[in-house]
């Protein structure tokens, strides 16, 4: 079996166990922790590159392995290999509406441990694609100060109800709304033409969270001036164009600025 970990050789590999479940975790950098929750099919070189950007911005990038082979490049076959098992796993609520994926309990525990180890006023997180909505569920924990949803794709948008659902249960949504009312912000990213991340999902977040939900929607229509393909999906990785002025580069900068604004300033004392 091929080992692709050379693509992560500048990261430190550790592990984290919660409730009997142990997973590998790759870390890089210093400063407040930002949990980078990889997309399908796994921690690709592009996800690792994003982790490096987070570390270079002054944070501890924490990349847990939820599925896939760490460091393995993206390919159609690899996506198919990872997608099937992830969809049927009980840890990921791929099809259910109004349900929080159980894996987020493990991620919250990881975040709590990383906050204890790395310090700072709290932690950040970015979910991508299949894991995009997990940062929303992590908001139930007061430590989560900088949640980012990049192209949140669950539940898979089969019906109108699925397309508008944000992937958490009623109790968790109520807690998220309480935190938003207290001033907590949430950042969301999507391409406008992405059928996997319908606009109605962001409409739900705007309706429920008001102006505490910061929406970044990048034009991928057939007439967009940047020639972004209509199939564009991964804002921070596969479809990121590292070019000044490009809207994906602007989105990346906004994410890093969001982390800095929320995690590098100690909260005011009451």
Q: For the CA atoms, what is the radius of gyration? A: 17 Å
Question: What shape does the CA trace take?
Answer: globular
Total number of β-strand segments? 8
User: What kind of oligomer do you see?
Assistant: single chain
CATH superfamily: Alpha/Beta hydrolase fold, catalytic domain
Please, how many helices? 8
N-to-C SSE string, H for helix and E for strand: EEEHEHHEHEHHEHEH
The largest beta-sheet arranges its strands as 1-2-4-3-5-6-7-8
Distance between the termini: 56 Å
Roughly how much helix do the residues carry, as a percent range? 25-40%
> What percentage of the residues does DSSP assign to strands (E)?
15-25%
**Biggest β-sheet strands, sense, barrel:** 8 strands, mixed
CATH top-level class: Alpha Beta
The second-level CATH architecture is 3-Layer(aba) Sandwich
Uncertain ranges:
none
CATH topology: Rossmann fold
Describe this structure in a few short sentences.
By secondary structure, the chain is an alpha/beta fold.
Structure characteristics:
270 residues; alpha/beta; Rossmann fold; eight-stranded mixed sheet; globular
Structure description:
The chain is α/β, with parallel strands linked by helices and 270 residues long. It has a single domain (5-263), classed as 3-Layer(aba) Sandwich (Rossmann fold), CATH 3.40.50.1820. It is built from eight helices and eight strands. An eight-stranded mixed sheet has the order 1-2-4-3-5-6-7-8, with helices on both faces. The longest helix is centred in the C-terminal third of the chain and has 17 residues, at 247-263. The radius of gyration is 17 Å and the shape is globular.
């Amino acid at each position: 079996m091929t080992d692709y970990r050379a693509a992560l050789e500048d990261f430190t590999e550790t592990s984290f166990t919660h409730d009997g479940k142990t997973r590998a975790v790759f870390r890089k950098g210093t400063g407040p922790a930002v949990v980078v929750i990889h997309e399908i099919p796994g921690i690709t070189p592009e996800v690792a590159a994003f982790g490096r950007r987070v570390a270079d911005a002054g944070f501890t990038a924490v990349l847990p392995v939820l599925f896939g082979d760490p460091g393995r490049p993206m390919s159609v076959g690899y996506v198919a290999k990872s997608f099937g098992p992830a969809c049927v796993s009980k840890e990921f609520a791929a099809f259910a509406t109004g349900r929080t994926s159980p894996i987020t309990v493990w991620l919250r525990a990881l975040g709590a441990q990383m906050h204890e180890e790395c310090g700072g006023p709290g932690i950040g997180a970015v979910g991508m694609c299949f894991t995009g909505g997990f940062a929303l569920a992590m908001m139930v924990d007061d430590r989560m100060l900088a949640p980012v949803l990049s192209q949140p794709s669950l539940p898979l948008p089969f019906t109108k109800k699925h397309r508008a659902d944000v992937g958490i249960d009623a109790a968790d949504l109520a807690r998220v709304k309480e935190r938003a009312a207290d001033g907590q912000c949430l950042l969301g990213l999507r391409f406008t033409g992405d059928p996997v991340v319908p606009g109605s999902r962001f409409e739900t977040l705007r309706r429920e969270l008001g102006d505490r939900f910061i929406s970044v929607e990048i034009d991928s229509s057939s007439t967009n001036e940047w020639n972004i393909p209509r199939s564009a999906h991964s804002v921070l990785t596969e479809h990121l164009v590292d070019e000044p002025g490009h809207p994906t580069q602007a989105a990346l900068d906004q994410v890093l600025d969001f982390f800095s604004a929320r995690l590098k300033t100690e909260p005011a004392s009451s």
